[in-house]
Write a structure and sequence with these properties.
heterodimer; A: mainly beta; 5-stranded antiparallel β-sheet; 4-stranded antiparallel β-sheet; 2 helices; 11 strands; about 5% helix; flat; B: about 325 residues; mainly beta; Immunoglobulin-like; 3 domains; 6-stranded antiparallel β-sheet; elongated; disordered N terminus
């Protein structure tokens, strides 16, 4: 299991399989998505100064900060519109407090969306409390359009629970 | 594109094993847990909405090594001579199964005397009390079984107190627990030595911890002093028939400990008769009957139960007899 789990698996789904559920894909994919994960590591230099580096997640433990990202690119000759990228947050991590407060998130599995400050969580006794970063289940980015050849990167920071 | 099918199959396997790691704990995700991230994009390229997934990135949580040791004794353990038992708790504060080597050090700076470590034992039956012959004694090097993340173990350190330890002297015993995989500066990586062949990494506590248990010598002794005063029927102090003899037995308890079930008894001298109702403890009258109060008097003598008496206190028992 060691080698398998150590590498950030890049498993591209075959377009032929996607076609079974989405006929539009059969004509070719306009957008490419490529996910990645990095470990944010604080390096202390000889002079005591610290710097932050993003490294391959060779060794990760609870409390470490990971950056999950998705690179997108429009490889087609046509612009696409209503480009929405949705990313469920793995249960073993929580959204890091340093995440942008403008990020659109969901705290209920994707049913409702908004900025974190506008969301609340229902507690066991029926009362509601303001949602916190650890409550976030999904993050979402929305772009009105992606022009031909346009590339971008969408990422969120997370801390291993 | 047919060659991609095996990879797709693999991706489903990944999902199936998502929760195969050690169960999540309050102190963090279990070692071996796979973290998988997949984004999904929807867009409109002119032919209606299209949904595509990204590739899935998978990382595995490595094993964090850490431990805490605490003394479960609320204060110094009172001891006199022979053996004393110190109780500790060892908790795996890492995120994966780990065993710990235990080392008890009786020579702690500042000790009035040093004990000798007899054995280190595990509270096998979980009752919190050392039961010789029942609780498992760890053979050297004393190593615990694998403790799951967040699991704790009660450990007994049994020590011998030297015979020349004096009353009031104290001695500390230090119990150290070290992760079997390794210890070191936080962040030290033991490649491939974690759960399922993953890495093990030393946590903030250095993957070792220690705690101090204390022993306080309480040697307690009891001295009984008996005194008599006589008053004769004529106002003097002569021992003649009819004289009343008042006996006072003073029990002086000294030392830093306490004695339990201290009972003072005395037999009436031949040729005297007990003065009914004269028995008293610390000037407070006691009934002669064997009842709820501490004392009783029979035809032959008296008995007063002082119960537990702390060192540094004294009690006096008085009673009268008449010379026949």
């Amino acid at each position: 299991m060691k080698n398998f789990a150590k590498f950030a698996a890049a498993i591209f789904l075959a377009s032929g399989v996607i076609a079974a559920s989405s006929p539009a894909i059969a004509q070719g994919r306009a957008i490419d998505l490529k996910g990645y994960v990095k470990l944010e590591k604080i390096i202390t230099g000889n002079d005591g100064a610290t710097s932050v580096e993003l490294v391959e997640p060779e060794t990760i433990v609870p409390g470490d900060k990971l950056i999950f990202g998705t690179d997108y690119s429009n490889n087609s000759a046509e612009a696409v519109s209503n480009f929405v990228v949705t990313n469920p947050i793995p249960s073993a991590v929580r959204l890091a407090p340093v995440a942008s407060s403008d990020l659109t998130v969901s705290v209920d599995g994707g049913a409702n969306w908004g900025k974190l400050a506008t969301l609340s969580v229902e507690q066991g006794d029926g009362t509601k409390r303001p949602a916190q970063h650890a409550d976030v289940t999904h993050v979402r980015w929305t772009l009105a359009a992606v022009a031909p050849g346009e590339k971008g990167r969408l990422e969120y920071p997370a801390i291993i629970r | 594109m047919g060659s991609n099918y095996p990879q797709i199959a693999a991706s489903f396997l990944v999902l199936a094993t998502l929760l195969s790691g050690t169960a999540a704990h309050a102190d963090g995700v279990g070692a071996g847990t796979l973290i998988e991230n997949t984004a999904t994009a929807t867009y409109d390229a002119g032919d209606g909405p299209v949904t595509i997934p990204s590739n899935t990135v998978t990382v595995r949580v490595d094993e964090l090594l850490d431990v805490t040791v605490t003394s479960l004794n609320s204060g110094p353990v009172a001891a006199s001579s022979g053996t004393a038992v110190l109780t500790f708790e060892v908790t795996n504060t890492g995120n994966g199964p780990e065993a710990y080597v235990l080392t008890a050090n009786p020579a702690v700076a500042g000790n009035d005397f040093d004990t000798t470590i007899d054995t280190i034992a595990i509270d096998t039956n979980g009752n919190g009390v050392y039961d010789p012959g029942v609780d498992e004694v760890l053979t050297s090097p004393a190593t615990t079984r694998l403790l799951d993340a967040d699991e704790n173990l009660t450990v007994f350190v049994i020590v011998s107190v030297p015979g020349d330890a004096l009353d009031g002297e104290a001695s500390d015993v230090d119990l150290l627990a070290e992760a079997v995989t390794g210890t070191g500066a936080p962040g030290t990586v033991y490649t491939g030595q974690g759960v399922d062949g993953g890495d093990a990494i030393v946590g903030a506590g250095g993957a070792d911890d220690n705690a101090i248990g204390s022993i306080l010598i309480g040697v307690t002794s009891v001295d009984l002093i008996k005194a008599a005063s006589i008053s004769d029927p004529f106002g003097g102090t002569s021992a003649v028939p009819g004289s009343v003899v008042t006996y006072t037995i003073t029990a002086n308890v000294s030392g830093s400990g306490a004695v339990t079930e201290l009972v003072v008894t005395d037999i009436f001298p031949a040729g005297t008769s007990y003065e009914a109702g004269s028995l008293a403890l610390d000037s407070a009258s006691l009934t002669d009957a064997s009842d709820a109060d501490a004392g009783e008097a029979s035809s032959s003598g008296i008995s007063v139960n002082l119960g537990t008496v702390a060192g540094g206190t004294s009690h006096s028992v008085t009673f009268d007899v008449t010379i026949d």
